[in-house]
What we know:
The protein is 93% helix and 0% strand. It has one helix at 2-29. It is rod-shaped, with a radius of gyration of 13 Å.
Amino acid sequence: MFFVIWIFFFGYTFFLTRRIKEMKKEVDFL
């Protein structure tokens, strides 16, 4: 069970970092 939570947490952080990078690109474009 702990392993599943660990993978979910890792994937969520990875998704967040990608979102932040995309947002930064949009801000730089503006």
